[in-house]
């Protein structure tokens, strides 16, 4: 995204938040909401928008589950690194012999629990990592890196981040929550200095691709 492109009034308010800022993205929460909305984010545009709003020295962190044998995911992570993201991964190890069961498809599918495994159980039991593990890992990363930042920008609406967000506020940090309405905890939202809903029509054009996953 070019610096000269106009920014909506809502987004321009974010330019007033103290710098430097750290942006932390909860991959599973984000992709679950994207799948439910049938959206695809242009991550190059997203990185450019964050630098426009929070300064060129903004730090971008992306945390998700990792399947090292999934070529598509590895290509996606490479693109994130190219545009300036620092990637943090929790490795996925299958505990099932079912070759058709893909953890990432399950994890990012909001309707996954409607499709139990052959034993009638949730697919979560077939893997050694779950969404809560990733949230805990990202919470640890926020606690580790936030001392160097004045503003926390959390790209998630998950209530699991309530404790670490509250801790940041107690330490005098500003907190911006960027989330989809369908995945936002109201208790988490009430803590934040600012909540930005990504479905808003003046935000969506900066982020969403209509016909492709990455650009």
Write structural notes for this entry.
With 215 residues, this protein is an alpha/beta fold. The protein has a domain at 21-45 and 131-208: 3-Layer(aba) Sandwich (Rossmann fold), CATH 3.40.50. Helices cover 36% and strands 19% of the residues. It has helices at residues 9-12, 27-37, 43-54, 71-82, 103-107, 131-145, 162-170, 186-191, 204-207; strands spanning 21-26, 40-41, 59-66, 85-91, 151-155, 174-179, 194-197, 208-209. The protein has a six-stranded parallel β-sheet with strand order 4-3-1-5-6-7, sandwiched between helices. It has a two-stranded antiparallel sheet with strand order 2-8. Helix 4 links the parallel strand 3 (59-66) and strand 4. The protein is globular, with a radius of gyration of 17 Å. Residues 1-5, 99-129 and 211-215 have low confidence and may be disordered.
Key attributes of the depicted protein:
two-stranded antiparallel sheet, six-stranded parallel β-sheet, 215 residues, alpha/beta, single chain, disordered N terminus, Rossmann fold, disordered C terminus, globular
List the total number of helices: 9
Residue stretches low in confidence (pLDDT < 50, at least 5 long) are 1-5, 99-129, 211-215
CATH topology of one domain: Rossmann fold
Strand order of the largest sheet: 4-3-1-5-6-7
CATH homologous superfamily identity of one domain: 5'-nuclease
Terminal Cα span:
11 Å
Q: Radius of gyration from the CA trace?
A: 17 Å
Overall structural class, as computed from helix and strand content, comes to alpha/beta
């Amino acid at each position: 995204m070019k610096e000269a492109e106009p920014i909506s009034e809502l987004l321009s308010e974010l330019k007033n938040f103290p710098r430097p800022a750290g942006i932390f993205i909860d991959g599973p929460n984000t992709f679950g909401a994207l799948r439910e909305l049938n959206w695809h984010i242009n991550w190059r545009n997203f990185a450019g928008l964050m630098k426009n709003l929070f300064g060129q020295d903004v730090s971008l962190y992306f945390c998700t589950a990792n399947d090292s044998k999934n070529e598509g995911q590895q290509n996606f992570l490479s693109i994130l690194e190219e545009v300036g993201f620092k990637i943090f991964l929790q490795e996925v190890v299958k505990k099932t012999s079912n070759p058709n069961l893909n953890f990432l498809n399950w994890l990012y599918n909001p309707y996954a629990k409607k499709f139990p495994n052959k034993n009638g159980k949730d697919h979560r039991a077939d893997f050694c990592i779950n969404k809560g593990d990733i949230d805990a890992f990202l919470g640890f990363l926020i606690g580790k890196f936030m001392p160097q930042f004045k503003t926390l920008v959390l790209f998630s609406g998950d209530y699991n981040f309530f404790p670490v967000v509250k801790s940041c506020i107690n330490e005098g940090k500003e907190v911006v929550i960027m989330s989809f309405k369908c995945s936002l905890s109201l208790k988490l939202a009430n803590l934040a200095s600012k909540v930005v809903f990504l479905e808003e029509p003046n935000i969506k054009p900066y982020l969403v691709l209509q016909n492709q996953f990455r650009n």
